[in-house]
Amino acid sequence: MDHVLKTVEEQERLAEEILAEKHQVVAYDQRRNENRVALREVRQKTLAKKSKVWMNLGDFFVHMPREQVISLIEEDQEKLSNEIERVRNDMQKKTQKLRRKEGKAMSEGWNLKGMAEKEISGPAL
Hints:
The relative contact order is 0.12. By secondary structure, the protein is mainly alpha-helical. The longest helix has about 40 residues, at about 1-45. A two-stranded antiparallel ribbon has the order 1-2. Helix content is about 70%, strand content about 10%. It has 4 helices and 2 strands, in the order H-H-E-E-H-H.
């Protein structure tokens, strides 16, 4: 009986962690979309003519050089993409562990990953 209770507790803990990570991925993706919109606005013709633009950094606005703003947003985009990938990989491992604890087999194709741009273009000739 004690073994069954521990198994159920472990399953619940894993399920809660998976749900929390799903919410985290959604939040990161929303921020990445907001950054994409900001990059488009900064690169637009009206702002492209200005040497400095206003950027919101938390609770305050800063007047910064346009190129520096673009660089900061692009760096944030890269960090967000890496973090989303890391969280998704963790979610995948926890989901596999949960399925094993439930006595279920993994679905076919679960471990598939998208091809990188370099893989799609093929070797340079």
